[in-house]
Write a structure and sequence with these properties.
The chain has 271 residues and is α/β, with parallel strands linked by helices. Helix content is 42%, strand content 11%. Bound molecules: iron/sulfur cluster.
Length: 271
């Protein structure tokens, strides 16, 4: 139902929503607000106050749907594969964060079955991934393949992606703002695929997806609810290459995932 906003606020709000759309963000969480007044919108984005003063006394009717309910480009896709293609097109030759000019060779979007029941999400592409345009293809990728094989499934059965899609220089840990800028596209990939379970590989993936700052020891061993999908956390394969003793612990995490997916648990673990 149309509500009343002053024109200046409506303009500022429209600009703000357009800005988020350009970043790939389409989902807005609206708190229930009895009356959508200028003040209540400012509670959502306090910085709009500066853009609004002096306030116009004239008020215009505004339909909230007009501002907030914008279908994502992939909304009309017939199937997950088409939706993923549309998200990739929307991402384009992305320059949304500084990583685009810090030596990346290409964007590493994600790979695998668009209808996968299981998704693995790592941190960022490394040198091999940057070179080949596919996540987890280097030594850590070989180990991830072994982990997947140990679960009795194939790499082609799952979908693999990273929190960010461009290689950070020197393989440094991605900055928080890089994760925040890039991850809306990953969220859309997850929504398009609709997996039964997600495995976050390493602390950066876990912290970004769950918005919780905790050590790996706390993240592991239980399920989280990620927007209605079950999410488990285990060690990043690159960490396991440095500390192979943790493979045993990783196998425990993967067994938990296998049980959830109804997969038979073989005696042999990750090698
Ligand atoms: S990391 Fe993501 S947001 Fe940054 S430039 Fe690459 S694709 Fe764009």
């Amino acid at each position: 139902m149309p509500r009343t906003l002053d024109p200046q606020l409506k303009r500022a709000l429209t600009e703000r929503v357009r800005y988020y759309r350009e970043l790939g963000i389409y989902d807005f969480y609206q708190r229930p607000i009895a009356e959508a007044t200028a003040n209540s919108v400012q509670e959502l984005w306090p910085e709009l106050r500066d853009e609004m003063t002096p306030r116009s006394k004239a008020a215009v009717a505004v339909d909230e749907d007009e501002l907030f309910v914008v279908p994502k480009p992939e909304a009309g896709a017939g199937d997950p594969a088409a939706a993923l293609r549309m998200i990739r097109e929307d991402l384009g030759d992305c320059t949304r964060c500084p990583l685009h000019k810090q030596g990346r060779k290409q964007i590493v979007f994600g790979v695998g079955n668009p209808r996968a029941e299981l998704m693995f999400i790592g941190e960022a592409p490394g040198a091999d991934e940057d070179q080949q345009g596919e996540p987890f293809v280097g030594r850590a990728g070989q180990l991830l393949n072994n982990m997947i094989k140990a679960m009795g499934i194939r790499r082609e059965d799952v979908y693999i992606a990273n929190i960010i899609k461009c290689r950070p220089p020197g393989n440094r840990t991605p900055e928080r703002d890089e994760c925040e800028t890039c991850s809306p596209f990953l969220m859309r990939q997850i929504a398009a695929i609709g997996p039964k379970a997600i495995v976050a590989l390493g602390a950066v993936a876990a912290k970004t997806l769950l918005a919780i700052n905790a050590p790996m020891s706390e993240f592991r061993g239980h399920w989280y609810d990620f927007r209605g999908t079950k999410l488990a956390v285990t060690y990043h394969p690159a960490f396991l290459l440095r500390d192979p003793r943790q493979k045993k612990e990783t196998w425990k995490d993967l067994q938990m995932v296998m049980k959830e997916l109804g997969l038979a648990v073989p005696a042999k673990g990750v090698e």
